[in-house]
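Batch manifest, entry 17 of 40.
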Amino acid sequence: METALQELLDRRQIEDVVARYARTLDWLDDEGQASCYWPDADIDYGFFKGKAAEFLPVVMQTERNSDRRWHMLGGLIVKSRSATAASSECYGIFAGASRQEDGALAGNLYGGRYLDEWEKRGNEWRISARTYLLDWQHPLPNQPDFTPNPDFPLPTVQIATSGHPLYRPM
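Output type: structure tokens
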């Protein structure tokens, strides 16, 4: 029973890291994003192959180049390999939009999957290796601007830099 309980607690910590990964990209939280990977983690996104410590500035600048970004990860499957090692796979959907030359906000919707290896050091789980696979993409032309639509006035937010006043560290 104790082993099963520890595996559940470990899985929950891994789920929290996966959620933090998406959230910290969207809010441009460099420190939070760094806390998802061990600095020596092996990363392969195709456009980048190397260690997490070198990947983080690249991915965060990529996110900063978008005027709007949104990541959603789900369907997480975790396989414990030992008390300090696990493997996982999950699906991800990402939308990014930037201001175009004509002033319109447009971008792409991407769907892919994350193949991750995990390592527990001390009491903390982080990604020790990641391979990202792109499955599909779809254009997103003419996205709504950052001003609420008067016919359906939902609040909007533009996150252009780290430290947005609505961001709450969790």
